[in-house]
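Subject: sequence -> structure tokens, single chain

Hey, anyone have a minute? Need the predicted structure for the following. Not urgent.
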Amino acid sequence: MTVDSAVGVKHRIVLVDDHPIVRDGLVQMMSRRDDLLVCGEAGSAEEALKVIEDVNPDLAIVDIFLEGTNGIELTKILHGRYPNMPILILSMHDESLYAERAIRAGAMGYVMKQEASRTIMDAIHAVMEGRRYVSSHVRDMLGDSATTPAQGSQETASTSSGAIERLSPRELDIFKLIGAGETRSRIAEILKISIKTVETHRANMKYKLNAGSASDLKQCAEQWVSAQG
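Reply:
Had a minute. Here:
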């Protein structure tokens, strides 16, 4: 969904989150600001790419977990296509697990959804001014690397025994089914879970196995299944 505007000095923002209630809350919060305007919304990465191409925003605010392509993959794509457009990750998921990947993918900041609205506004203004915005914990974790966003994926997927051992039992079940060639919907059916849950586990596995994309994860799983005989 796009919104036309001729407001001039307002920073134009696209919200990417698969929960309409979250987007509605952000719209209401930003509507109280004189310098911010939500000019587009998207519930998936595919929709986000279309909306951003149409409205050419000043900033994209992206959630981590989206149906299909996740927020980190979307960040990589957007950073490649629009290197001058800052991206802020706004997520309910643990920053210690995902912030570093988000920054390396090209995001300018990472903030938790449960933070106060003032903190979220501080993050928005920081990235709009070209400054990184992460918590002190993440800043200490990243060190100097926090100033160097990815210029494309440099990651190499790993199926070493140590990497596989990091998977939870449920993740390993899904990993085996991916390696056997099953689709997301079929995996959900076999394990009696939702497709959204499958996507969440896939995102976690990509992080744990250092897989830069869904195809990398699939190739990784296929190689592992084949090696098991």
